[in-house]
Structure formats: C-alpha cells, structure tokens
Amino acid sequence: MNATTRRDTWLLILAWGVLSAALWINLDAHHLFVHTDEPRRALVALEMILSGDYLTPTLNGEPYLNKPPLYNWLIAASFQLIGRYDEWALRVPAVLSLYLLALVVALSVARHHGLFLGALTALALATSGRILFFDSFLGLIDIAFSALVVAGMSTIFHLGEAEHWRSLFVFSYLLCAIAFLMKGLPALAFQGLTLLAYLGWRRAWRRLFSLDHAWGLLAFLLPVGAYYLAYFHRNPGLEEAVFARLWSESAKRTGLEFGLGPVLVHLGTFPFEFLFHFLPWTLLALLLLAKGVRRALFDHPFHTFCGLAFLANVWLYWTSPQVYPRYLFAFAALMTALVIPAHALAEHHAPRWKQAIEALLGGLIALALIAALALPFTDRTGHYPHALLKSAFLALALTAILWAYWRGRLHRLVLLGLALAFIRLGFDWFNLPGRDGELTPLKHQALAVARLTQNQPLYIYDGTPVHDGTSFYISAERREILRRSDRAQPGTFYIVATPLLQRLPPYEEWMQFRTTHYSGWLHLVRIGENTLETIPETDGPQHKEERPS
To answer: Which of 81, 240, 291, 494 is most buried, judged by most C-beta within 10 A?
Structure first.
C-alpha cells in the first residue's frame, strides 16, 4: 500500500470536516412531498407520539403493517428531543446513521490497512453520488439499516477469523435482530446468506449445528419475540396479517411478482445501474480488470470476504426488477472496501490504469469547477442570496483542489473526496432550497387546513386519497391524529375528494386544496349542524389511496 504523508492526513481530516458541515446545511430547506416514503416515516413516528402507543405503528390511526417500528422510534425520539415536529428533526437520524455507517466501514478497513485508509474508504462511501446527493438528507430507513447489516458482516468475518464462534453468532444475530426490527425480513436474508457464505468458505459447516449457533438464534429471538408478543397482546387478531405483510413487503419487488421478461432485462442493466448510482468512486472498479491488482487484492482474506459477501447477497437484488438504489448501500460499502485498496495496489501492479482513471476523476473536478462558475448566471440558481459570493468561494476551493490534484503531490483520492464535500456544499446552497419547489404550496395548503380547523373535529372522508405528507403537516400543526371516517357527523370538518361530495349531506365548503399523487381537488367541508348523521352507501365511487411501502 502507498505511504501517506502528514499533509495527506490533515487533508483527510479537512475533507471530513467540510463534509460534516455540509451534511447539516439546509437540512430542512425542502418539504416532505418528495417521491420517497419519507413522509410515511414522519407520519408513523408522529402518530406514535400523539397516541402514546409506541408498540403499534399507525397511518391516519389505522395499523401500519409494512415495517417494524424501530426506525420510527428513532424519529420519534428526535422529534421529542429537538422539541419540534418538522423536517429537520425528521432527518437528524439519517445524518447520524451516515456517521455510524462510515464509522463501521472505517473501523473494519482500518483493522487491516490502518486508520488512514479506513477513513478514506468511509469518505468514499459517504461521498458516493446516491448517498451524497439524495439519501443523506432524507428521513429514510436505509442508511441506518445498512450500517447494521455491514456491522453484522464485519462481525461474522472478524470473530470468525479469531475463532470466537459463540461471540460471532450472538453478536451477529443481535445486530440482525435490531435490523429486523427496523426493516423486516431483508435483515434475515443478509444474515443467513453471509453466514452460509463465510462458513462454506472456511469449511466450517458443522458450526451451523452447534450450541453456539443456538445461542445466536436465541439472541435474535429474544428481542424480536418480545416485541411481537407485546404487539399482539395489544393488537389481538393481527398475527396473520402482520406476518403476511412482512413477507409481501420483501417479495413484491422480486421476479416472483414481475415475471421472466423484466427479470431478464434487469439482469443486463443492474450492474451498470449500480456503478452509475455510486459514481464517481465506482470508476475505480475498473482497476479490478487488471490481473495483477485483482490477484494482489484477493490474496488478502478480508478482501476475499468482501467480494464473497457481495456475491452471496447481491443476487437478491440483481434478480429483482424493482430495486431502489437505497437498498444497495451495504453493497456500496463492500465495493468501496475493495476499490480503495485496489487503487493503492495499482501503483505497483497497474500504474497506467491508475493514471488513466485518476485523469478521468480529475476531469470531473474540472467540470464541477465550471458549473460552480456558472451558478450565479442561471435563472434557476442566480436568485439565491449571495449567489455570486458563494459561487466564488466554491470556485476558489475547487481551483485549489484541482491545482493540487494535477501537481500530484497530495493523495489524489483524498483531494477527490474534499472536492465532493465542497460540491455538496454548493448543492446545499443552490439545489436544496428549491428542490421540488413546485410542490411547496401543498405544505402551505395543508397548514392552512390545520389552522382553519384548530380545536375542531376533522377527519378524512373514507375513500379520499390524502398523501402522507399532507396528513403529517395537518396532524403536526393540530397536535392530533388525522383519522379516516365513513360517517358524516353534524358540525364536523371533513377532507373530501370531489367525486365523493355527492355522498355527503348538506355541507359548507371552507377551501379547496391539493395533495400529491392525486390529480383532483380536495375539499375542506363542514357538515351542517342540523344534519342527521348519515352512513354512506357502498355503491358510490371509490378512490382508495395507493400505499407503497
């Protein structure tokens, strides 16, 4: 491996410092109406607080079965500790989870290649495209879940190599239990496939039938079983529905659901999609095509295990046509644990490959510099406060980095990581405030509904499609769960879709507004005080909201 200088070390510390600052800037600048399940995470956590029931996740007061509750507990804790029900508090656990994932990766690599290469590998993961420019500022499960999965994989390898079998099983299954309570069956799939791959590689199959493995299974069953016993005690009769939903949530994106044709297409496109989503660092994977690099890399047991764990698990997603990039963070961690050492090995085993890839990466920094110079002069970004000053700061920083990069006297991958940290800073200033800006009025409309109906009964008329983001803003402002109802009660406010208005008794309309994922208007109405309570007919038009996980 390459020797590093003290200047490289300080440069790496600077890169982490800039990135750490950038991760928090404008974290709450954009609303919840993004095309992810972030609004759902927010609403489930909020309803736990409002109901006082942390065992039973709900949406609009109805049981939510798609995911176990652990990540919602983290969001609820953030809401409570920060004292606000808003976007900032929602996203704090995701940023902290990224630190945790980076720490797990850094420590795992550092055991074999020292702290510098460990911290560089973690920096590469944290600044990969999909994480840096999307998931690191959204309140989603996947970064935290991946941190647990990677920690479990590292536990299996390091304790297995030390032949601490009981500790291997107990601690890896305990991490699996925590991950299961966060996302369900995928945790067991990662644990089982990684364990089978490792024991097969080390020809230690008999450990599967040992007392040590039994202790591991017990470490999984105790926390998971305790939660579900408590849940079913509070919610009797939901046993079959809960476990059926856990299975369907794991199977619905696979080839079992989509058939052979989409699977075959996905088999061909998946590798390129994976490499694209985690650019620019995945360009270093080209070094693995060099025989000398590959041979030297996989001579090390840790790298062999990383490759083995990758191949043992990736087929689950490689054969699943509907896979979101955020499901692949654990694989990105394994990949960076391979390509960063591969870059160091290429100095001796494939210097021309290394020089060509470094030239390409330097070109990307140059393109970022050109973009930074253009920011004050575009209609989309030129109107932001102090745009010229911020652009000049970014341009100066990237110019200095590019100059040092081409001189080649500092570690080029550290310079790339520092450049990406500054690029994220520019992203915070010029992209996040206007992200999905055309949907910003939806938040203000939801808040207006909440304020008009404050301290008054309000329901969603059953069959009306209301996005979870709309429900969250209304519930957070009113400090009350926004529930559904199929009864039109006198003197009560309802949110009703246009086709369902004809089913209501006489009412007074207070406002019209929109919600995302539904093209029609919603109406805030109040049923007349002297109207008899009615139960609607069941043969009217129905507009059930789609609820993807």
So the answer is: 494
- 355 and 343 within one domain: no
330, 274 contact by CB (below 8 A): no
Q: Are residues 103 and 224 both part of a single domain?
A: yes
Total-model pTM: 0.92
Q: Which of 222-226, 319-323, 536-540 has the highest mean pLDDT?
A: 222-226
Answer whether residue 515 is part of any domain: yes
Q: Which helix (H) or strand (E) holds 508?
A: strand 507-513
Name the domain boundary from 312, 333, 348: 348
Answer whether residue 79 is part of any domain.
no
Same domain, residue pair 491 and 523: yes
> Range with the lowest mean pLDDT among 183-192, 222-231, 263-272?
263-272
Q: Which two tokens stand for residue 389?
A: 């000053």
Q: What is the full DSSP assignment across 258-291? A: H-HHHHHHHHHHHHHHHHHHTTTGGGGGGGGGSH
Domain membership of residue 517 as a residue range:
438-527
Q: Which residue has the tokens 């508090």?
A: 89
CB pairs under 8 A, 24+ apart, for 190-193? Answer: 190/149, 190/152, 190/153, 190/313, 190/330, 191/152, 193/312, 193/313, 193/316
- Tokens 């949406």 correspond to 59
Mean pLDDT of 26-43: 90
Q: b/e string for 317-356 if b means 16 or more Cβ within 10 A?
A: bbbbbebebbbbbbbbbbbbbbbbbbbbbbeebbeebbee
Same domain for 227 and 147? yes
Q: Please give the structure tokens belonging to residue 425.
A: 């800073």
43 occurs within a structural domain = no
Domains identified in the chain, total number: 3
Same domain, 326 and 358: no
Q: Token pair of 442, please?
A: 């939806």
* 393 and 342 in a common domain: no
CA nearest neighbour of 500 among 471, 474, 538, 530: 538
pLDDT for 544 equals: 36
What are residue 512's DSSP bridge partners? 523
DSSP secondary structure letters along 93-155: HHHHHHHHHHHHHHHHHHHHHHHHHHHHHHHHHHTSHHHHTTGGGS--SHHHHHHHHHHHHHH
Question: Do residues 82 and 93 lie in contact, with contact meaning Cβ atoms separated by under 8 Å?
Answer: no
In the predicted model, is pLDDT for residue 535 greater than 50? no
331 and 357 in a single domain? The answer is: no
Residue 25 belongs to some domain of the structure: no
Query: Which of 415, 434, 453 is the last residue before a domain boundary?
Result: 434
